Amino acid sequence: MDFFHVLVVLLESTIRVSVPLVFAALAGLFTERAGVFDIGLEGKMLGAAFAAGAVAAVTQSVWMGLLAAILISIVLSLVHGYASITQRGNQIVSGVAINFIVAGSTVILGEAWFRQGGRTPALGEGARFQTINLPGADAIRDVPILGPIYSDLLSGHFLLTYLAFAMVPATWWILYRTRFGLRLRAVGENPGAVDTAGISVIWLRYRAVICCGILCGFAGAYLSLAMTAGFVKGMTAGKGYIALAALIFAKWRPKNVMFACLLFGFLDALAIRLQGTPLPFVGQVPVQLMQALPYILTVICSPASSARPSRPRPAAYLM
Amino acid sequence: MSTPYAKLPGWVEYGLVPLVNLAVAFLVAGLVVLLVGENPFEAAYHLINGAFGRGEYIGFTLYYATTFIFTGLAVAVAFHAGLFNIGGEGQAYVGGIGVALACLWLDQVMPWYVVFPLAILGSAFFGALWAFLPGWLQAKRGSHIVITTIMFNFIASSLMVYLLTRVLKPLGSMAPQTRTFAEGGQLPKLDWLLSIFGLNVGTAPFNISFLLALAAAFGVWLLIWRTKLGYEMRTMGHSPSAARYAGIRESRITVIAMMISGGLAGMMALNPIMGEQFRMQLDFVQGAGFVGIAVALMGRSHPGGIIPAAILFGVLYQGGAEIAFEMPSISRDMIVIIQGLVILFAGALENMFRPAITRAFAVRGQRAAAVVQTKGA
């Protein structure tokens, strides 16, 4: 039963670290399906995490923090939208610019406002998300196999965790079962046709970008209001890029995106778990290799599918 | 929006438009200074004073500029081939291995002018190696070069921590760095160059790699505009389909352009390692690889634009240190913001002010034409 216990713990932390990836990758799904490439997921997430941490610390309200995160993330999305949709600038350059602006300003503003070395003050009970115990979780904890799966693996997560996984079918439904979704996919694959049908390409793409902003806002809020109690500088640590890689790996499909994010999350959790423990046959693995593992695997995994024809081919892809 | 812009005079196209974009970027940066509760004019004063106030300060400004010329050229070469190499940071970091190996091997027995060429080759080799894999993955598997180069930055960072804490560190030492190089691993300063202008370079590490950077800039100009390879790279950058139609092998150009780009980024390591620290330390690149993106965009990927752009960022780095000293709430991270704003306004939004400027010149042109007509009548 020891192996089973380890597995449950590992999967539980997989879910925990996958949540921001799921939000961010779904956010990227909306814009990329609409033909706007977005390398700025990282920056939006970081900006949202800072806004959430700062506002929640000042107002002592977790909801105000969440709202601020979403607002900031939408504003950053609109900057990206203005540059890449209205001005037809280079989308990658615009995304990179946003990442830098956010990386610098979160540190400068955080230091100027709170003077804690780029952190926001630690949040108390009411100012961050609490875990939710599903009904009956305590009652069946002792049941073998099912008990731990239900009580430890599925129960005891944050509201945002459940929201993230609920967003997967929701995104699928929006994209494949609504008129908005159909048009959104069409504008990515053939903007000319959408234009001919008398639908505004620009307004559609702006709406896609706003959807991306909302989801990145949730991702950032999760980092600073749920996973940790406050903002730490550079806390996204490449998650935005990993989410992007997961999105490409999953060929821009919601269900696959979720599994890709869980895979990357699992590797991350495994890397944390294996630090300092010698492996059979290999011996002690240097901690740096374990830290680099998610990035190495992203390189190995992400490319294979991006050259396939199923990739959406928006006219506005520049590079 | 899709109508082509009227042709502007050269000095407007390459002078005024970038300057207007730059001015807006600094205006927004000034707003951030206001938001922090400081006076932007005072910050600007400390910036200029810190960068040019004394011969020593100028030496530091040019020292930083040297670094940014290398990384700016690296990004520019890839840009010409239509590739966005965002991994200059990692390539420069890994390039440091080549410099360190050359110095550790020969510094005690050979003079600097023997070690230096070997270190150049070593740094370019390791930098190119680190850029080869993303280039190869893009060429063979169609993986997105932006994502792979970003991942390689993270991997480089872990690799270098491993090497500096386990392999390259001298026995019995705790600090994650190589031993200090002897005479042969130290580049001579360019104090004579500044003393021509009556300036005393003082302790500034302004060294001979500045001349190498200028030579590299000339070399890049030759490569891009005067060789067959450069022509093929530019063709691919402008129109991949035209390049394919002309029989240019895309995968070959992708890999070669990335390796040249990585080699130039790697050569950046010469400046801090052999020119200032005389040892390889953790995080010696300090974001210079990313600054290269802003420098290349501002300099419009032309060596003639990259050198002034690199000097401007040298001013920001050196003057920024002075601002951080005088105004503690404005730390070095302010430069990251300015960098992002420059990338935004000089890169993604480069055409934002162009219609207005074009209109202004069109009006002027019409007036001039009207004057000629009246005179003619």
UniProtKB/TrEMBL annotation, chain B:
InterPro entries, alphabetized: ABC_transp_permease
GO molecular-function terms, A-Z: transmembrane transporter activity
CDD domains tied to this protein: TM_PBP1_transp_TpRbsC_like
Electron transport recorded as keyword: no
GO-annotated cellular components: plasma membrane
Keywords, sorted A to Z: Cell membrane, Membrane, Transmembrane, Transmembrane helix
Membrane-crossing segments per the record: 12-37, 57-79, 113-133, 145-164, 204-224, 253-274, 280-299, 306-324, 330-349
Location(s), subcellular: Cell membrane
Membrane topology type: Multi-pass membrane protein
Predominant location: membrane
Name of the protein: ABC transporter permease
